[in-house]
Amino acid sequence: MWKLIERLGPIAASAAVDTLTLDYATRTRGRFKATSDGGRELGIFLDRGPVLRHGDGLAGEAGQTIRVQAAAEPVVTARLEAGLPLARLSYHLGNRHVQLAIGVDADGLGWVRFPPDHVLEELAARLGARLEHHEAPFDPEPGAYARAGEGGHHHRHHDHHHGHDHAH
Fold first, then answer.
1. Closest to 108 in 3D by CA, of 136, 131, 129, 80
2. Which residue(s) pair with 57 in the sheet?
């Protein structure tokens, strides 16, 4: 078993000897066993830190390098006009404290991607989004308060009241 012990950040595909395709939930963990795409048995032993992102490298004890890939998984992509409509949708979904991937397609149409959730889907539809249920890589935006070497949900302590409590 190869023991992978170091986060390398983004690396070129050519810099890795193998790839490891993982869903989002697994990429949030620091310690787990997995099988690489090439069939190698891997033990992941990382410090607690940021979520593994698509394209990140992991280094092993013997110097070998593996590149992480985001697996296709069930998602909902809400599409609508870029600019204020996309900002409004992102604001309201983000106010629900869910992980979101945000982008603009080749036609200039904005999109927000999230795990399937009927409440979020209804909200997105009410705000004018066209919803697509499909499988795609889920690589959400990192938190604005996340710093290198830290993971999890971080807030600066501030007063904000919007109908629910936080555990800080």
1. 80
2. 9, 67
Q: How far apart are CA 93 and CA 85, in angstroms?
A: 12
Q: The tokens of 114 are what?
A: 């999230």
In 3D, which of 5, 4, 10, 66 has the Cα closest to residue 37? 66
Kind of pairing between the strands at 72-81 and 65-70: unpaired
Q: Which amino acid is at 148?
A: A
Q: Return the HEC string of 92-138.
A: HHHCCCCCCEEEECCCCEEEEEECCCHHHHHHHHHCCCEEEEEEEEC
For residues 114 and 95, is the Cβ–Cβ distance under 8 A?
Answer: no
Interval 122-164: pLDDT, tens: 999 999 999 999 999 999 988 765 544 444 433 333 334 444 4
Tokens of 144: 């604005």
Q: What is the Cα–Cα distance from 146 to 151, expressed in whole angstroms?
A: 6
Q: Give the pLDDT confidence of 82-126 residue by residue, as tens digits.
A: 899 999 999 999 999 899 999 989 888 899 999 999 999 999 999
pLDDT, tens digit (0-9, with 9 covering 90-100), for 21-46? 999 999 999 999 999 999 999 999 99
Alpha-carbon distance of 110 to 55, in angstroms, equals 23
